[in-house]
Amino acid sequence: MNRSDSGHSLSLDLADLGHDDLAGAAAVGDTEAFAVLVRRMTPGLLRYMRRMVSDTQTAEDLTQETLLDAWKGLPDFEFRSTFRTWVFTIAHRKSVDYHRRRRDVPIVDGRFAEIEAAGPLPPEQVERQLLIDALRAELDNLPSTSRAAWWLKEVEGLTLEETSRVLRISTGSVRGHLQRSRKFLHTRLAPWDPGRRTPTTPNVDGREGGGIDA
């Protein structure tokens, strides 16, 4: 097998590994493994930062800082949580520190394409867009921790326990934030969903969901 074949095989092997296996390899200096992790983690981290930080460039910078800190910290990472949870914990700390320094209040910045409906039927287009626009605005009215808990669970798919680790609060507190967020959003979004008994929010894949499950 020549060198190019070997490299191709290695690339395929790395692509088949899970986050934690890649992190284990990266922890002992495998830069190729960490490069795969960066490609996998960057989209979700950037989505999260854009929800928590109003400035686009700052969100991108904090995402890069998060990944750099993860690389530096990997040798000491003890895998007491999943790698993904640990990286979101670093990201959340970055956003909190940023706002503490700036004494700024996060705002939603209009880049909400990640929860746009995927190809709705034409008659549904306008109504769904109104609902998404309303959700964009109302998320901004949630307290920062509630918005973070909602986003991590509903968009990024973290569990209650993982969200608890990221935000450094108890699972009971996470559940409370989610329940209050669900009640708030359902109440505020009711005018945009008049045909249903229980208002719904759009999922990231374009299907309608029942809101936030505590």
TrEMBL record:
Record keywords: DNA-binding, Sigma factor, Transcription, Transcription regulation
Biased composition (Basic and acidic residues): 205-214
Domain RNA polymerase sigma-70 region: 37-103
MF (Gene Ontology): DNA binding; sigma factor activity
Gene Ontology biological-process annotations: DNA-templated transcription initiation
Transmembrane spans: none
Occurrences of domain RNA polymerase sigma factor 70 region 4 type (ranges): 133-185
Region (Disordered) residue spans: 189-214
Family: Belongs to the sigma-70 factor family. ECF subfamily.
Protein name in UniProt: Sigma-70 family RNA polymerase sigma factor
Organism, scientific name: Gordonia jinghuaiqii
